[in-house]
Amino acid sequence: LYRGRAVISWLLEVYLRRFMNIYGSPNFASNAALCVSSRVVAARYTFGKGISPCGDFRNSKCIVLFGTNPAVSGMHRAIRVMKDIMEAKKEGAKLIVVDPKRTETASKADVYTTIRPGTDGALVLGLINVIIENKLYDRNFVSKYTYGFDRLKDLVKEYTPEKVKNITLVSSSMIKKIAYMFSTVKPACADKRQGILHHENGTQTCRAINILNIITGNIDVKGGIVFLTNLFDPSSRAFDDLTFKMQLPRKVASISETNPITHNVPSDIPKAILQENPYPIRALIVVGGNPILAWPNTNVVVKALKKLDFLLAIDVYRNETASFADIILPAATFLEKTDIQAPNVAIPRVIQLQQKVIEPLYESWPEFKIIKELAIKMGFGKYFNESEEELMDKILDPWGLSVNMLKQNESGIVFDPRPVGFYHQNGFPTETGKVEIFSKKLEKLGFSPLPNFKEPSESPISKPDIVKEYSLILVTGNRLITSSLSYLHNLPSLHIRTPKNWVEIHPETARKRNIQQGELVIVKSPRGSIKLEAKLNSSIDPRVVFIPYGWGHYYNGSWQLANSDPGENVNILTDDKLIDKMSGMPNYKSLLCEVKKSSEEVV
User: Fold this and answer.
1) How far apart are CA 231 and CA 348, in angstroms?
2) How far apart are CA 201 and CA 120, in angstroms?
3) Is the per-residue pLDDT at 244 higher than 70?
4) CB 245 within 8 A of CB 234
5) DSSP letter at 467?
6) Alpha-carbon distance 553 to 501, whole Å?
7) 257-294, pLDDT tens digit by residue?
8) Chain mean position to CA 116
9) How many CB atoms lie within 10 A of CB 246?
């Protein structure tokens, strides 16, 4: 079973886990390993289990953003996070942005630098090197609250600004400038998003950024990195032995037990279906997801879907993946169902009750009801006997909340069980009780206990033999204001604004290839090729091209089967084998490609 981004729901998560456990399958995957896993794994093996680091931008005096563009990255971030950043800037805060593209957010920065995609980890180690060598770190905080600082000092000795310059292509003077600014202005916070996560070394890069905040004393303090508590607590009565605590073996996953989300990795599913290893997988349920657009290496995904004996799609739309389904069960929209909303993207964190406005139209049901009724039909009814409100009360109960309380506070309740400074006073939920710069648990699991840097597996450095054929670095999935991930593309009022996908290319790079603005070009990688319109953009690094994602086979108001042609789906170009072994996240943002005029022959 695969649960997509469109249905992140506290209620549904409980029932999906429970359904798969009772059925007896460990093969439950979600979009987490395409979205947040690296952040979560890095946080767990640095700060401890159950807490999520978040930048307190509004109260910060120096903000560093790695690989994120909150000005357009989803309405919840564009409205809340960017507003906080701009308010802080009005009061004198400095904004530093690291990105190979001068994005909408980067255009507001006081300091901006481009970087070679996939090398942010080396840059952060270089910043730490400068801070330690010049004794700019918070010695009191480091000695009192951290474990493993001396080993970090040994690691970063080799990451001098000069060496890091050669890796990242960021000038040594810029490295020193960012390091001095971040370490001498307090409070400060360095944050990261998808531009950092979608790499094979994403987890260790996240750990390095966490440690940058740690050694400067900017964690668990106002204006620095604060910690949001996970509402989805396994101690909740909603997570009985049939829901969460039954530890079934991961028969399909290739990643280790470092991933605390306990989901399998989506990119492993097609491989397991096609290779029948460790056993044949004959059926797949997809709930609120679109693997053909979202998973890496679309050609492999399509082959796997075709091989299945049975595919069930539960969704509001008949998308590309649903076009292959044997049965499509229509799901209700957000206006037709009740749930809990507790966004984990900005502070203060607010919990609200999403109340049903109208009864579901036509034959649609909320996904929660579909899974419940399916379980009843299969003889599992006694395990699915709660009402929606009863299950929500079980989830909320550990935090002293209830559905009735949310009903009485329609604008929401601030969820802040562990305020800023809590962990300074009570210790961190780690083995040592301190922030773990050096993780003994990671060492036992066979991973580097320190945030080492690893060159991307497919880069101009690691693959010099194919650089002549694929000379550009491909970054996919940059966020847009008109869509969210792979959905909203088929909403007519938004689709008309961005009806087709495109490739952004620097004018000088285009000139060398005799490519004109608006011309149809072919973008190819070792996996395949797609045909897109060229958009010339002088705000991007000349060595890099950018392609958004989410376009597939939506033509003239209807979905077309994905086996007709590749369409405009950028995941035709990406690789399902290049993943972060610690979190399962694919490399979507540091691959090799080439752009050619469409009139030229492509193999």
Assistant:
1) 14
2) 10
3) no
4) yes
5) T
6) 11
7) 545 444 577 888 999 899 998 888 999 999 999 999 99
8) 20
9) 14
> What ranges make up the beta strands (E) of 70-219?
94-98, 111-113, 146-147, 188-192
Q: Which helix (H) or strand (E) holds 52?
A: strand 51-55
Count Cβ atoms below 10 Å from residue 327 Cβ, excluding itself.
11
Has residue 557 got a pLDDT over 90? no
**Cβ-based neighbour number of residue 283 at 10 Å:** 13
Bond into 249 cis (ω within 30): no
Rounded Cα distance between 93 and 96, Å, is 10
Give 436-470 pLDDT, tens digit per residue.
999 999 999 889 999 999 999 999 999 999 999 99
Fill in the DSSP letter of residue 359.
P
Task: Say what percent of the chain tops pLDDT 70.
Answer: 88
In 3D space, the residue among 341, 286, 345 whose CA is nearest the CA of residue 316 turns out to be 286
Between the alpha carbon of residue 143 and those of residues 47, 129, 147, 189, the distances in Å are 16, 18, 8, 20
Ranges 227-231, 565-569, 572-576: which has the least confidence: 565-569
The pLDDT of 162-178, averaged and rounded, is 98
Angle, helices 120-133/161-168, rounded to nearest 10 degrees: 170
Is the CB of residue 86 less than 8 Å from the CB of residue 108? yes
- Report the C-alpha gap between 303 and 308 in whole angstroms: 9
DSSP state of 384: S
Of 127-141, 181-195, 260-274, 312-326, the least confident: 260-274
User: How many CB atoms neighbour CB 5 within 10 A?
Assistant: 18
